[in-house]
Amino acid sequence: MSAVDLGIPRLRVTAPSADRPDSPLLLDRFGRVATDLRVSLTDRCNLRCTYCMPAAGLDWMPRAEMLSDAEIGAVLRVAVRELGVTSVRFTGGEPTLRKGIEQIIADTAALAPRPRISMTTNAIGLARRAAALADAGVDRINVSLDTLRRDRFSELTRRDRLEDVLAGLAAARDAGLNPVKVNAVLVRGRNDDEAVPLLRYCLDNGYHLRFIEQMPLDAQHGWNRADMVTAAEILSQLRKAFDLTPSPTPRGAAPAERWLVDGGPAEVGVIASVTRPFCGDCDRTRLTADGQLRSCLFSQTETDLRGPLRAGADDGEIAELWRAAMWAKLAGHTINEAGFAQPLRPMSAIGG
Hints:
alpha/beta
């Protein structure tokens, strides 16, 4: 089986809009302000999750097309100093596969004002790196974990690495990367009976569990709504074993709806991206590993920053491109509308 050719998304040519308010922030036409930046450090991954990519993997980005460490630093400087970004999450692919990640994080932590720094990882190598990542400036970690059964983990990820992930979670907790959050995706007929065991495990170990509805972001474009375990189904399973009450903490722009478990203080969250979209409160902006801006996970267009950076654009020019890109952001994704088209790039190339 050959690797999958991802294609090239359409590039958006952005220009300042006459009707945009005179503000340095990342505004859009619907009153939202982007303050949360997702930065993909690589599209490479050391797992082959069935709902993300084929067994043979993908055609990885040529390294020359990826932003250098210095270019990432330049973009982050503009985001924090010029555009009001207050939170940076490093993603992939698998971000720990990026050489020099600790220095990238340290440079980000040195920015003023210092942004909150987090990372989403599969935790395969986290046991030996959690302390160094914490020392570099990571504030907290999200770990993807869809099953507690070794046979299922091997089936879902095509790798026998469950023990490494569990060890990585423990190392993150011990390094003070709290709250350690666990992201779980349930797929019908594969692991849809594990909602309760996953929550018990996280409660026992002090982790914060978030269930995420499976989204149409796989490289194979084989997403089937019938395979998606909905938020309502997940909550129904959990209520058979736990007493769930709505969290009193305001949700704000957070994607997860949260519930207190058995009166609290422990919580569980459900991110219902498909059945209960939260686009109206979205505060995210995204940068791919090859330097393309995306205003939405499901964007069909991108704005190139790599070209201008390499042509010598200054901070002000990069900031104006970014503001124009976010001003053009759509009201929301159209997953539940006729004619929805899945993005050309899969999640691993966009960044989680």
